[in-house]
């Protein structure tokens, strides 16, 4: 037990006794008898039901309000290049500085970020975040200088580093392990090896009461595994919370003892962090919330929506009625027996889909890419005819969002994005 300083009388945090010499323990102060009782309680294996009901443990202590609870272990997983490390860094830098994260309060504390790769790039990301958030004090954020394999010596090394940091600052609040693959020893598909890795994580975290350990990990490679973390299912089973990052959406896929919040849209925005010796700009990225990038929105398109976008790109300035006929013709090439009603429904749904996502609109009866000039109203139904007027929507179509001005992209940028997408996803 570390030596504790004796302070002058106030009142005991447990029994309220005043007028005695009190001993600080954790963030409380106790009289001698209560302090001894607390020490004994911490060494006990079990607590009674009454102690649980009356203890501070019944309260929820948030590190990130409504998302990450204190004393928990979780993972943030996603595909390579999906932005998971940017998100993890944005999240824990908010904790290290006490700034809100995407409108959610954070509890400030020390952050130990174990980076398994890309240390130079990580420094640029930290600098970009620092500039973007008003150059706050980053003394509570600590980045590892090399990869630490999670074996027995690593536990001692990380725990000692955490204790050294706590001696000169606030308690350790968050550990980040980025990524699992770079720190784990053994086979991530082996339940035994994964169990050993998780035990190491829990051993480290348990040495710092109230702390969180966040594992950054990859998704599976097979088609049926792209929505779960890679490797042994023992990983998911051991998590208190789980965050999935993919295609510009951060989703809470597991949250013990609580209802997960709605998915959070995000996109990466380039940010300058300096210049090289030739004067060329050095850039990284920061995270913006509330909106997905156009490329990520496109990735969610259905096959019919992809087909319709290709037709719009190949027939710029086409009338809506002609576009519908082009769509029918293309669909019949692959399905000669398709009924007219089926094609009509497929076209209407596809049009509504790409319109609502901001990739197409109407200027009168002319189809436009990424913009519309009808003031937020359509002048015709996409179902039949080219000369329907305002309000001529017998099927109740014409949602305002279908022709609203798109998300801060000029026409030329929309065409460039569309060209790249069609080349990659639509063209044979």
Q: Please, could you describe this protein's structure?
A:
The protein has 428 residues and is an alpha/beta fold. Strands 7-6-8-9-5-10-11-12-13 form a nine-stranded mixed β-sheet, sandwiched between helices. Strands 1-2 form a two-stranded antiparallel sheet. The chain has 13 helices and 15 strands. It is elongated and about 90 Å long. The N and C termini lie far apart (69 Å).
Oligomerization category of the chains in this entry:
single chain
- The number of helical runs is 13
Envelope shape: elongated
Mean pLDDT score, rounded?
81
Instruction: State the CATH topology of the largest domain.
Output: Rossmann fold
Helix content: 25-40%
| SSE run | EEHHEEEHEHEHEHHEHEEEEHHHHEEH
Q: What is the gyration radius calculated from CA atoms?
A: 28 Å
Q: How many angstroms separate the termini?
A: 69 Å
Which helices and strands appear, and what pairs or packs with what?
Layout lengths: L22 E3 L2 E3 L1 H12 L5 H6 L7 E3 L3 E2 L2 E7 L5 H14 L12 E6 L3 H14 L8 E3 L8 H16 L4 E7 L1 H4 L7 H16 L5 E7 L15 H5 L2 E6 L2 E7 L8 E12 L5 E9 L4 H5 L4 H12 L5 H15 L5 H17 L3 E4 L2 E4 L41 H16 L2
Parallel strand pairs: 5-9, 5-10, 6-7, 6-8, 8-9
Antiparallel strand pairs: 1-2, 3-4, 10-11, 11-12, 12-13, 14-15
Helix pairs in contact: 5-7, 10-11, 10-12, 10-13, 11-12
């Amino acid at each position: 037990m570390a030596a504790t300083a004796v302070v002058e009388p106030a009142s005991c945090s447990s029994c309220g006794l005043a007028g005695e010499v009190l001993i600080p323990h954790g963030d409380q102060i106790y009289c001698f008898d209560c302090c001894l009782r607390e020490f004994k309680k911490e060494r006990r294996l079990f607590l009674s039901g009454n102690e649980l009901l009356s203890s501070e443990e019944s309260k929820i202590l948030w590190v990130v309000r409504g998302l990450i609870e204190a004393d928990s272990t979780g993972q943030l997983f996603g595909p390579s290049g999906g932005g998971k490390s940017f998100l993890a860094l944005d999240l824990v830098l908010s904790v290290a500085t006490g700034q809100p994260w995407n409108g959610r309060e954070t509890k400030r504390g020390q952050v130990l970020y174990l980076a398994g790769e890309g240390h130079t790039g990580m420094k640029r990301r930290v600098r970009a975040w620092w500039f973007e958030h008003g150059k706050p004090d980053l003394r509570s954020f600590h980045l590892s200088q090399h990869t630490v394999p999670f074996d027995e010596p690593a536990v001692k090394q990380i725990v000692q580093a955490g204790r050294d940091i706590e001696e000169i600052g606030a308690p350790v609040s968050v550990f980040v392990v980025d990524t699992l693959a770079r720190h784990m020893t053994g086979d991530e598909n082996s339940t035994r090896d994964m169990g050993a890795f998780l035990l190491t994580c829990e051993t480290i975290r348990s040495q710092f009461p109230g702390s969180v350990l966040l594992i950054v990990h990859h998704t599976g490679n097979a088609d049926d595994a792209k929505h779960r973390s890679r490797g042994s299912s023992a990983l998911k089973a051991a998590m208190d919370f789980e965050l999935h990052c993919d295609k510009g959406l951060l989703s809470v896929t597991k949250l013990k003892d609580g209802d997960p919040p709605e998915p959070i849209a995000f996109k990466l925005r380039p940010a300058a962090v300096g210049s090289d010796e030739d004067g060329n700009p050095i850039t990284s990225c920061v995270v913006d919330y509330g909106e997905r990038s156009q490329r990520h929105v496109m990735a969610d398109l259905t096959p019919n929506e992809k087909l319709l976008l290709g037709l719009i790109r190949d027939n710029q300035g086409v009338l809506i009625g002609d576009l519908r006929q082009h769509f029918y013709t293309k669909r019949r090439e692959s399905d000669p027996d398709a009924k007219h009603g089926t094609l009509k429904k497929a076209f209407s749904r596809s049009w509504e889909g790409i319109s609502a996502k901001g990739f197409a609109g109407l200027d009168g009866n002319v189809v436009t890419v990424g913009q519309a000039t009808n003031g937020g109203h359509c002048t015709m139904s996409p179902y039949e005819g080219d000369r329907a007027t305002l309000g001529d929507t017998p099927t109740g179509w014409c949602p305002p969002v279908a022709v609203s001005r798109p998300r801060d992209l000029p026409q030329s940028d929309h065409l460039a994005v569309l060209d790249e997408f069609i080349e990659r996803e639509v063209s044979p």
